[in-house]
Write a sequence for this structure.
């Protein structure tokens, strides 16, 4: 026999499951069939539930800001819900970063970096040291122009070509139009192979290999890169890139946990 506490908790869990079910229906709605959202009747029919019950739950979700309703009474997921999902993804990213990057660093024996795009530049938010006597610097909290690093290339992979050129020209006053186009060509090559290579671009003695990290929606939110002496890394670019892509995949598994809300 259930205790009162168990009954209360069971009701809460059941209520949460019902809320998630409604959000799942709204997120899975066929855009062609419901271009402007779903009515209460549409949702209740899709779920096989009583219309009055669904109506009360949608009203509660509307009051909490997790769904939006237009003047005709059609419901859809709210921008607040998308914002919450993005924030959850960012938190998961930082929690996952340390262990995954440490394993990657130990495997390739070179320093690794987690970076994000900030005001058109590459900002390093986390780094793992290789513990070798000669390695690239930590750089956490500092920025570099996007065209000077493998991370910059990775962060821009999904941008339109002309936008990439514009960002590069605005972020580096000394770069010429020809140099911006050469950078774009490197990005285009990276799109085909899935990872970026910055060979002696940031520093004449350094080589970097980067890859994008995508959130639950497929959007690039960060990049991971391996960086170190070019003479040490150059013979192993393909092997290191394989390890890097495997690490990125490990990043993206927990970030995809909220995919059903997208």
């Amino acid at each position: 026999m259930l205790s009162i506490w168990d009954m209360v908790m069971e009701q809460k869990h059941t209520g949460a499951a019902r809320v998630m079910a409604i959000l799942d229906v709204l997120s899975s709605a066929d855009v062609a069939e419901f271009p402007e959202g779903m009515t209460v009747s549409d949702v209740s029919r899709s779920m096989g539930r009583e219309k009055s019950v669904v109506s009360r739950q949608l009203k509660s979700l509307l009051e909490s800001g997790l769904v939006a309703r237009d003047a005709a009474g059609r419901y859809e997921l709210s921008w607040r819900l998308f914002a919450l999902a993005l924030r959850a993804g960012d938190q998961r990213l930082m929690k996952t970063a340390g262990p995954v990057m440490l394993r990657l660093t130990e495997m390739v024996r070179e320093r690794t970096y987690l970076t994000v795009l900030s005001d058109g530049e590459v900002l390093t938010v986390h780094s793992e040291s290789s513990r070798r006597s000669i390695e690239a610097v930590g750089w956490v909290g500092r920025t570099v122009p996007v065209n000077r690093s493998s991370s910059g290339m990775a962060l821009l992979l999904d941008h339109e070509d002309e936008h990439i050129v514009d960002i590069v020209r605005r972020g580096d006053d000394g770069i010429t139009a020809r140099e911006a186009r050469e950078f774009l060509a490197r990005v285009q090559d990276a799109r085909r192979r899935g990872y970026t290579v910055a060979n002696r671009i940031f520093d004449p003695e350094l080589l970097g290999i980067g890859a994008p990290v995508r959130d639950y929606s497929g959007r690039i939110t960060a990049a991971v890169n391996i960086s170190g002496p070019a003479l040490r890394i150059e013979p192993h670019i393909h092997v290191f890139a394989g390890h890097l892509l495997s690490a990125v995949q490990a990043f993206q598994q927990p970030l995809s946990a909220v995919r059903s809300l997208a």
The chain has nine helices and eight strands. The CA atoms of residues 218 and 256 lie 9 Å apart. Residues 1-13, 258-262 have pLDDT under 50 and may be disordered. The longest strand covers residues 220-229.
